[in-house]
Amino acid sequence: MTLLKKFNWKAFLILLAAGLLGVVALLPYVVDLLRSSNLRDTPGPQMSLVFVVLLTLLQNGLLLSATILIGMILSERVGLRMPLIRAIAGGQRPVNLKAVLVPGVVVGAAVGTVLVTIEAVFFLKRLPAAMLPSFYISLWKRLLAGVLYGGFTEELVMRLFLVTLLAWLLGKRWKTSDGRPSPGAFWTAIILVAILFGLGHLPATSVMTPITRLLVVRALVLNGIAGIAFGYLYWKRGLESAMLAHMSAHLVMQVPGVMLLKTMLTAAGS
Q1: What is the pLDDT of residue 53?
Q2: Distance between CA 228 and CA 114 in Å, rounded?
Q3: CB count, 10 Å around CB of 212?
Q4: Residue 238 and residue 230: Cα distance in Å, rounded?
Q5: What share of the chain is helix, strand, coil (3-state, %, to 5)?
């Protein structure tokens, strides 16, 4: 009870609101994805949009509440930070903004550029035809899904919860003289979660096409690179830096990146 009384509930509510905003932002993209997939002709129960949104918010709200609560408690124990959010929640003016924001923007843009390049060079021409319509979903829907759901919701689950939890568990055996997880524990947690991050994208891919070895490799490579970069920023610069990097990466991938990939697809088909 003492722990919960000292808990920063304002920061918790800020993170929960951001996570739920990401969930809502994902819905337009998911609807288009399902319409373009082989599920579009599958009969099923008809539910109103309002009911679907409310049910989605309820389910994800419960999941996010648990993950944020655990992540925040354990992050303090292992020395992982969210400096800007805690400052805002405490009514203080955030300090060292550049140290958090600049690495997020720069690393995120670099990650987005690298991922688009890898996609274009190694995977694009080998993608199943059923996956190509995802490049033609409206830009605003792709941006909402990538920037808000990716930047907020995925980072809360993958970095705040999973990286923190694994670092805490590994730190019980792998720790420094002050009792905090060692660099090896943090790196192991970051890499393991990056692998899970990649595999976690496969269910969405399976909606469009059967999973193949190529698609597994693609998911692990693209999302693994991103996951390691975001995890490192979370460790060294704070959760907000990882969130901003995720957002910046999607801005690069969804605007100039998709334009390039669509041009390449058009050229290949002519």
Answers
A1: 75
A2: 13
A3: 12
A4: 10
A5: 80, 0, 20
Dihedral of alpha carbons 102, 150, 54, 52, sign:
positive
- CA–CA dist 243, 15 (Å, integer): 11
Count of structural domains within the chain: 1
Nearest residue to 158 (alpha-carbon basis) of 63, 30, 36: 63
Instruction: State the greatest distance between any 2 C-alpha atoms of the chain, in Å, as a whole number.
Output: 67
Compute CA distances 20 → 23, 24, 59, 261, 268, whole Å: 5, 6, 10, 31, 40
Query: What is the residue-level pLDDT of the chain in tens, covering all 270 positions?
Result: 566 678 999 999 999 999 999 999 999 999 888 887 655 444 555 567 677 778 888 999 999 999 999 999 999 999 999 999 999 999 999 888 999 999 999 999 999 999 999 999 999 999 999 999 999 999 999 999 999 999 999 999 999 999 999 999 999 999 999 989 999 999 999 999 999 999 999 998 998 999 999 999 999 999 999 999 999 999 999 999 999 999 999 999 999 999 999 999 999 876
Give the span between the Cα atoms of 244 and 188, in whole angstroms.
23
Q: What is the domain range of residue 250?
A: 2-269
Tell me the one-letter amino acid at 208: M
Task: Read off the tokens for 95.
Answer: 């300090």
**Nearby residues of 39 by Cβ (< 8 Å), 6 or more positions away:** 207
Return the residue matching tokens 């720790």.
175
